[in-house]
Amino acid sequence: MENITPVLELEMYLIRHGQSNTNAGIKVHETPTIQDMADPYLTETGILQAKALGKYFGDTDFDYIYSSGLFRAERTATEVINGQKSRKALRILPYL
User: Fold this and answer.
1) ∠63-66-68 over CA atoms, to 5°?
2) Contacts of 87 (CB under 8 A, 6+ apart)
3) I need a surface site. Which of 36, 46, 72, 77 has the fewest CB within 10 A?
4) Could you give the CA distance from residue 60 to residue 85 in angstroms, rounded to a whole number?
């Protein structure tokens, strides 16, 4: 059997967004808006979670950082970037 060496090595991290208002059961408006239902904002806890994640990955040198176009995902990814020594541009994949 032939010894095959991989041509490319890939390491990928999949991260879920921090806690959102919907996750926490927080009712932002008496009658929920489309924003509240479709793309809720992060709670204060969610922002702290995202910042902690940025700190956790602070020494990880990512080649690229991608996010969906949802606000909660972008905010989480931005906090990860803010924790990086070498900040990369956030790449938005709107259909993700």
Assistant:
1) 180
2) 81
3) 36
4) 9
- pTM of the predicted model, to two decimals? 0.78
- Two structure tokens written together for 82: 């803010």
Number of other CB atoms surrounding residue 39 within 10 Å: 16
Amino acid 95 reads Y
For 3-61, write each residue's pLDDT tens digit: 887 778 888 999 999 988 776 666 665 665 666 566 788 999 999 999 999 999 999 98
E strand intervals along the chain = 65-67, 90-92
Q: Which amino acid is at 42?
A: L
pLDDT in tens, 63-90: 999 999 999 999 999 999 999 988 889 9
Structure tokens at 93: 């994949």
DSSP assigned state of 82? H
Q: Which amino acid is at 43?
A: T
> Which tokens go with 74?
């972008």
